[in-house]
Amino acid sequence: METALIGSFVSAMATVIGAFPILFVKRLSEKWKDVLVAFTAGIMVSASTFGLMPQAIKESGIIALTLGLITGVLLLDLIEKNIPHIDVENKPGYTNMDSKALLVLIALFIHNIPEGLSTGFSYASEQASLGPTVAIAIGAQNMPEGLILAVFLMNSRTSKLKALGIVTLTGFMEMVSAVIGYFTASYLQNVVGYGLAFAAGAMLFIVYKELIPESHGHGYERPSTYSFIFGLLIMVYITQIFG
């Protein structure tokens, strides 16, 4: 339990760590944004393919993998349709953050819930190395997301400290959902495989629906592609180290 708490905390607070550069920079170039997002996509694909999915089959079988993965995809699709993910750097019209803050927070909270559940389910698995692997993958996604969100908030005339506070709140929601996922899987062992498959489906949906298109929309497809491959290989090495 203590390890799960530490892992979920580190993963969630990666959002805050990613936001720290706003203390020194005010704008993130499109090229670096695309490269960071693609790198994150590679990490998440690797964690899902080589970590979550094989372990889901091992713990609960191929049917559990199929049902859990589809459920993860459908839930993320439902969230996307009803609360679209905010393009935090390019979205026009957000000039008064005070009037929009609640909407932004609610949207990001809901988006972070499946990510936190993924971490919690992974730490409840019989494979001890899976929890840290997924926590690293989610944390890697959170860092550029935290930076981009913080830049958006500053462009919306939000102070640096207030921007960091808002980013911290979104990370805290992810930690809460990670704890919920861990306890649910710990007390209901037969759902662990479904939970891992759900996490894989949620992560793959995020990669294909958001991260890859976002990293290929500004003319930097080639460096983004190399960054994706590099991120995938990095996570393979991390999996081997923890395994």
TrEMBL record:
Keyword Calcium in annotation: no
Source organism (scientific name): Paenibacillus etheri
Family: Belongs to the ZIP transporter (TC 2.A.5) family.
Chain segments annotated as transmembrane: 6-24, 36-56, 62-80, 101-124, 130-152, 164-185, 191-212, 224-242
InterPro entries reported for this sequence: ZIP
Alphabetical keyword list: Cell membrane, Membrane, Transmembrane, Transmembrane helix, Zinc
GO MF terms, alphabetically ordered: zinc ion transmembrane transporter activity
Name used for this protein in its record: Dihydroorotate dehydrogenase
